[in-house]
Structure formats: structure tokens, C-alpha cells
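# nightly structure sweep
# worker-07 picked up a monomer target from the shared queue
# config: single-sequence mode, recycle default, output format = C-alpha cells
# input follows
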Amino acid sequence: FTAFALGPRFTGQSRSVRFNAQQAVLMDVALIFPTIIGDSIEGENVARALVEPCTNFVWYAYVTGVFYCVICNLRGKKPDGIPFFSQ
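# output follows
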């Protein structure tokens, strides 16, 4: 986590590499919260009809963000269209 957050800043990497590393860190942090919530209700009796759509949403949102960043990088554009992650 710290290597991605601070490493490119101090090694003289280009702006694009620093931006992509920052996005990677923010996406990892965004995935920590659903994991913490899921672990906190693990022993509870929660309806499966509620848990599965929430889990699917987190996975689809993550994969969509990754594909968006990959496509933008392949096109040579900065992937700055994702709110909060691209600020």
C-alpha cells in the first residue's frame, strides 16, 4: 500500500505512472470497506437475497473500473472519468 502510494512520487516517475498508482491505491481502499462490512455481519443471519446482489455490485463496479482504466491507457488517454478516484 505504502509503496504504491509514495513510491512513484519519490522515484521520479512520470505523471501518468503516479496517477495510475494513485488510482490503484484508491481502488484497493474502496474494496476494503465492503470486506470489513461483510466480515462484521458474517455470523449474523442475513438474507441471501440481500448479500448476493451487494457482493455482485462490488465485483462489477471493480471490474468496470479496471477495464475503463485499461482501455483508456491503451488509447493513450488519462483515465480521469471515475468520480472520487480520478480527482
